[in-house]
């Protein structure tokens, strides 16, 4: 196809400085009244010690600590003395249970030593297994098993808190002109509630760091970090697909090649030693993911529990894969036909959300995967909080359902029909946020990031780049494209646009 004219915004005003969320977002403005009103000029410009990075990091740590307090009932008793009470008090965590259940209390080496019971080897990707093993080294192996499990949870909580701070800082720095959007991550209620259920924050932190590197134009570092994130959890590899579509539209094949090479090499460096010397243990994660049946949180569960002929595992595996492929084809079509090239964060969010919506299981901590991507894709407080409210409802719903199933004849909690409504709320909230992101792509004037004067601050080399391959209506020059040309240079991580020439 012949080279198409750029459909990117062609007229940029001089950089107006940091975006003030309390001036552009009515929900943020109303919320700021609780702490004394909108931020002043010194805070916005970072001229005091209280820079956005420090403020957001401290808020993230403080909120994480509140999440630890929320788990206190389980820490003292519910993990050990009552199966249903850890659900009725909504403080369940996999971490203390797997300390003994996966052999860490006995000094067994993940992937190499076979476990007693139904699970022969650790069912987590290698880098997460390393994280779990390091935490076990730091756990005192003395006293009762309950004492050790409490210590193991606290050690992991400390390490995961560091991951949470990294995530918040990376989001602040990724959109250089929108540093206060990081507060959405720090204050996200579902983030606080689910942070210590499992070890997902490790992969989320590596993915957030990868996004930061791409925004700085460091494609190889992006690839390496994304490969490490994929070695901790499978979902980060999905980001390579939307990035491919964007680089295709912009003709940035060299940068994409470096990112892909970095990801593959980093993943192999972590995985090959275990694959070579503990093949059976290494395969356990992939075997478990394939063989597990329909599970909590998915629309598949609603189908299975309301059908006299529930779908088989093979059918669900095949159909879910086809649905994901169809979603990604839709994302590719959206990328190549949109009137203006979508932002990377928008497509990254849609890609991960598509996987979550079609997967056969949705554990409550999976919301962590989406939180930083949602903030970068749609930093609008109203929409973000609507979605978060749906996720909190699901968080409470799954624990109440498990309480119902484990409380015997007492039937404390939420029956299956009620839990199905909780799943529906989660699905509706995620679909709602996907819908507004797609709307922003099709109507870029509605995109709050671009309304503030940016093109793609998380896009790195894509920021302000020309299009070289587009389809359909996007191939026609935008109505505003003929008025001016963009003069753009790179200075650090921020694009600096030449001011308009107002001479006669």
From TrEMBL:
Write down any Gene Ontology CC term.
plasma membrane
Q: Does the keyword Lipid biosynthesis apply?
A: no
- Name its cellular compartments: Cell membrane
Q: Which source organism does the UniProt entry give?
A: Streptomyces mexicanus
Q: Where are the transmembrane segments?
A: 49-69, 151-172, 184-214, 220-247, 259-278, 315-337, 419-442
Q: Which InterPro entries match?
A: GT87 (IPR018584), UCP010361 (IPR016570)
- Among its keywords, does the record have Membrane? yes
Source species, domain of life: Bacteria
Protein family according to the UniProt entry: Belongs to the glycosyltransferase 87 family.
**Pfam families of this UniProt entry?**
GT87
Main localization of the protein described in the UniProt heading:
membrane
Name recorded for this polypeptide = DUF2029 domain-containing protein
Bias kind Polar residues: ranges: 1-11
GO MF annotation, one: hexosyltransferase activity
- Give the region (Disordered) as residue ranges: 1-25
Q: How does it sit in the membrane?
A: Multi-pass membrane protein
What keywords would UniProt list here?
A: Cell membrane, Membrane, Transferase, Transmembrane, Transmembrane helix
């Amino acid at each position: 196809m012949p080279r198409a004219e750029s459909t990117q915004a062609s007229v940029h005003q001089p950089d107006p400085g940091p975006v003030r969320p309390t001036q552009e977002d009515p929900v943020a403005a109303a919320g700021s009244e609780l702490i004394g009103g909108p931020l002043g000029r010194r805070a916005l410009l970072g001229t005091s010690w209280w820079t956005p990075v420090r403020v957001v990091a401290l808020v993230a740590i403080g909120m994480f600590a509140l999440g630890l307090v929320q788990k206190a009932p389980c820490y003292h008793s519910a993990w050990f003395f009552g199966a249903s009470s850890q659900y009725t008090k909504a403080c369940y965590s996999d971490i203390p249970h797997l300390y003994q259940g996966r052999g860490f209390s006995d000094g067994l080496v993940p992937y190499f030593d076979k476990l007693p019971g139904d699970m022969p080897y650790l069912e987590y990707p290698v880098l997460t297994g390393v994280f779990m093993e390091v935490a076990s080294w730091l756990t005192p192996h003395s006293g009762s098993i309950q004492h050790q499990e409490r210590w193991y949870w606290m050690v992991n909580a400390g390490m995961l808190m560091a991951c949470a701070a990294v995530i918040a800082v990376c989001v602040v720095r990724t959109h250089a002109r929108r540093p206060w959007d990081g507060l959405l991550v720090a204050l996200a209620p579902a983030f606080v509630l689910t942070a210590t259920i499992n070890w997902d924050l490790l992969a989320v932190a590596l993915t957030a760091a990868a996004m930061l590197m791409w925004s700085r134009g460091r494609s190889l570092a992006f690839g390496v970090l994304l490969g490490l994130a994929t070695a901790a959890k499978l979902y980060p590899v999905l980001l390579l697909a939307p990035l491919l579509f964007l680089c295709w539209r912009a003709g940035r094949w060299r940068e994409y090649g470096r990112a892909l090479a970095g990801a593959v090499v980093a993943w192999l460096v972590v995985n090959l030693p275990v694959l070579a010397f503990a093949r059976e243990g290494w395969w356990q994660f992939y075997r478990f993911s394939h063989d597990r049946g329909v599970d909590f949180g998915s629309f598949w569960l609603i189908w299975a529990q309301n059908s006299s002929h529930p779908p088989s595992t093979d059918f669900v595996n095949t159909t879910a894969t086809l649905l994901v492929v169809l979603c990604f084809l839709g994302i590719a079509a959206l990328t190549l036909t949109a009137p203006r090239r979508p932002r990377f964060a928008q497509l990254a969010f849609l890609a991960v959300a598509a996987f979550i919506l079609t997967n056969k299981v949705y554990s409550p901590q999976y919301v962590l995967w989406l939180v930083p991507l949602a903030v970068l894709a749609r930093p609008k407080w109203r929409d973000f909080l609507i979605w978060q409210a749906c996720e909190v409802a699901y968080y409470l719903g799954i624990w109440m359902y498990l309480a119902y199933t484990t409380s015997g004849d007492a039937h404390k909690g939420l029956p299956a029909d009620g839990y199905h409504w909780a799943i529906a709320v989660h699905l509706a909230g995620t679909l709602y946020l996907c819908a507004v992101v797609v709307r922003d792509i099709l109507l870029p004037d509605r995109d709050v990031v671009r309304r503030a004067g940016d093109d793609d601050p998380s896009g790195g080399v894509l920021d302000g780049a020309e299009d070289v391959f587009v389809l359909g209506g996007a191939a026609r020059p935008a109505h505003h494209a003929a008025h001016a040309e963009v003069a753009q240079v790179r200075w650090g991580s921020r694009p600096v646009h030449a001011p308009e020439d107002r001479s006669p």
